Amino acid sequence: MAFSDEQLSRLALSAAFEPGDESIGGLVAEFGAIELIDRLRIESSEHDLSRFGRRWQSRDWLQDAVAELDQAADQGVEIISPGTPGWPTQLDDLHERAPLVLRKKGPLNLRQAASRSVGVVGARAATQYGIWVAEEMCAQLASEGWCVISGGAMGIDAASHRGALALAGPTVAVSAAGANLAVPASNHSLFARLFTEGAVISEVPLGANPNRRRFLVRNRVIAALAPVVVVVEAALRSGALSTMREADAMGRILCAVPGPTTSALSAGCNELIRNGGAMLVRNADDVIGEVLRASDSPECFAQSTESINLFEQRVIDLCAVRSVSVAHIAQGVGVSVDACTATLHLLERSGLVVRTVKGWRATNKAHR
Amino acid sequence: MAFSDEQLSRLALSAAFEPGDESIGGLVAEFGAIELIDRLRIESSEHDLSRFGRRWQSRDWLQDAVAELDQAADQGVEIISPGTPGWPTQLDDLHERAPLVLRKKGPLNLRQAASRSVGVVGARAATQYGIWVAEEMCAQLASEGWCVISGGAMGIDAASHRGALALAGPTVAVSAAGANLAVPASNHSLFARLFTEGAVISEVPLGANPNRRRFLVRNRVIAALAPVVVVVEAALRSGALSTMREADAMGRILCAVPGPTTSALSAGCNELIRNGGAMLVRNADDVIGEVLRASDSPECFAQSTESINLFEQRVIDLCAVRSVSVAHIAQGVGVSVDACTATLHLLERSGLVVRTVKGWRATNKAHR
User: DSSP states of A188-235 as a string?
Assistant: First the structure.
């Protein structure tokens, strides 16, 4: 894989400095990674640079980055950064807080998966109710071609990935540890499946351990990747709610699963619904319905021709020759009419299908 | 008790014709009860009158009404009709569908109780979760001086009345049977307490049995009496939801308790919250909060000086001598600041308290 000096410099900077640091992100945006490293090499009088310079000069980070590249190649880990084909442009919504690079272990094309995805978050110490809802919702999302993005943690995260994998659906874990590690260890078998059938992505170097800060800043990546984020179970003042706040700040669609008012683990969800911070959703259909309603708001999606997934291609194929009804297409791809309509609206916005008197038809652009 | 001919005529008409009949209500509004009976006595060519005339002429309803008056006196049952002091004017919002009269058994002043009340509805076949929430919510409402109005049925209704009675709070059952009967029989001990500590009210004659139609039209009375109606547990297409629709049509505040998406008995509640038909509430504080938010909408309340309850009197007493803070009053009466503020707003609208720099102070009107 051709890897530019700029990308190698980003990889080195991402190891030297903790992820989500706006100052470093701002400096990379201002100077580019290569020039920033040149400036960090010399003792500088500028306050910010001298602070970061000491850290940079404490170690040969570029040599470490070269070693990580080798390790990545050995372990089938892909390094993704802005400009590489797999980079999901939704991450640009994080501006200075966007990851400098991502390490990805697993076959899934992250950019394609993220273009039609749902972020699912929730408590680690989830109840059986939450676990059941997350599994069921994510299995249904998977069956309708939506990628489930979660955090790979115990509880709701693990149930969400499991639900998607159960129906061979795409799913991505955004890890706070190195992308080649199974953390927490209790999710070892889940990570084994994500490595071979989905993807584990991370901003921190291969082999790196997570810490409290890394768990927190990881949340912003989940929030950025998906156009919609669902919280299944969450206590008041929980990590899951902080993810929802991140998602809200980026204009994502927020959904929450209600629960008993007697359950502390539904308190965060019920509170969000009550104060208008999230839409009440009961299942995948409701979530897809929210996307459908919002599909006229272009900022929620960064759909482009190159990011069509297999599901969307099947939808296009079904209306490639002549105009057909939504019901016909839905039956052909085996999803609900609502889900199919949502997909058609997305494809319409990309100019790949058009509405006709008889239903929908693929455009010339789709035939290229 | 002085009982006018008009009231006796209404009592007779209410026995001859099923409650909630718009045609009869319209005719009473047009002619008055006495003149309507005069017209029903003669064979009339007017379509509506001839239909009702046959029913009227089938029996000596006025004699029955006199007998019911005697029975009411024997059993301590009060007959309330428009114009009598205990008539809650909120019922006028039902227009032609307003009850012609109400029979009331129990010590509670209905007009006073309704002026600061919460309607609580829900499934007969409630879950333990719903029962617990209803009891807890209604106990708290009672402790803060709110009357709980429900239907006297099993499940959520019974739990609501029990919760209120547990804290010696005011509570009213709107029965589909005669007000002197305990229906269903399984709620016998509950009705015994309502007869002596609260009130059972009904539109149908003493001793009358309920039927499907009477259960349905009873719901509109619950919806009309309270400024806010809470559904605790309800299946889709349930009687509780029909009460909510009645309440909505009258501009009442609608609240719903969320529940697991896996519970059929929370499906109606979750659906209402999801489609914006009701506000999510978790407890009595949330319900009171909704009233507080809506308290600038005067149509929700028909508060008048005569309908001050003991709780409100205690609030007034605490700020009778000098201006005091809400926190001070709340502590004095033993309720939350939110609940106390709600009460103060209601009293302010009645001109009984005013806001001052230092908090609140009772007006001269309150000292009368």
Answer: HHHHHHHHHHSEEEESSPTTPPP-HHHHHHHHHHHHHH-SEEEE-S--
HSE of B257 in the Cβ direction (CA atoms, 13 Å)?
Answer: 37
A205 touches chain B (CB under 8 A): no
Domain boundaries, chain B: 5-104, 106-299, 303-367
Alpha helix segments (H runs only) across chain A = 5-16, 22-31, 33-41, 47-57, 61-75, 110-114, 128-143, 156-166, 188-197, 212-225, 239-249, 264-274, 284-294, 310-318, 326-333, 337-349, 364-367
d(CA A222, CA A235): 19
CA distance B272 to B281: 12
Q: Which two tokens stand for residue A303?
A: 């759909």
A282 touches chain B (CB under 8 A): yes
Contacts of B257 in chain A (CB under 8 A): 261
* Tokens 């009949």, residue located: B21
Domain A111-299 has CATH 3.30.830.10: no
Domain B303-367 in the same topology as domain B106-299 = no
Which chain B residues touch A283 with a CB distance below 8 Å?
A: 261
Q: Which fold has domain B106-299?
A: Rossmann fold (3.40.50)
Give pLDDT tens digits for A20-51: 999 999 999 999 999 999 999 886 666 667 78
Strands B359-362 and B353-356: antiparallel
β-bridge pairing A102-105 and A199-202: antiparallel
In a mutational test of the B interface, the residue from A280, A285, A290 whose CB has the highest number of chain B CBs within 10 Å is: A280
Q: How far apart are CA B243 and CA B124, in angstroms?
A: 14
Checking if the pLDDT of A292 tops 90, the result is no
Task: State which fold the B303-367 domain adopts.
Answer: Arc Repressor Mutant, subunit A (1.10.10)
Region of poorest pLDDT, from A156-170, B209-223, B248-262, B322-336: B322-336
pLDDT tens readout for residues B267-306: 999 999 999 999 999 999 999 999 888 876 544 444 444 4
Q: Is the peptide bond before B82 cis (omega within 30 degrees of 0)?
A: no
Where does residue A273 rank: exposed (0-12), middle (13-18), buried (19+ CB within 10 A)? buried
* C-alpha to C-alpha distance for B152 and B155, rounded to whole angstroms: 9
* Angstrom distance (rounded) from CA A31 to CA B188: 81
Q: What tokens appear for A43 in the block?
A: 């003792």
Q: Strand, coil or helix: what is A358?
A: coil
Across the interface, of B133, B273, B283, the residue whose CB is closest to A273 is B273
CA atoms lying within 13 Å on the CB side of residue A114: 24
Say if CB B184 and CB B154 are below 8 A apart: yes
A230 touches chain B (CB under 8 A): no
What's phi and psi for B280, nearest 5 deg?
Answer: -70, 125
The one-character DSSP state at B61 is H
Rounded CA gap, B26 and B28, in Å? 5
B97-133, pLDDT tens digit by residue?
999 999 999 999 999 999 999 999 999 999 999 999 9
- State residue A298's pLDDT score: 46
The torsion angles phi and psi of B324, rounded to 5 degrees, stand at -135, 160
Tokens of A52: 């970061």
Q: Which of A129, A261, A286 sits opposite B258 (nearest CB)?
A: A261
| B315 or A181, greater pLDDT | A181
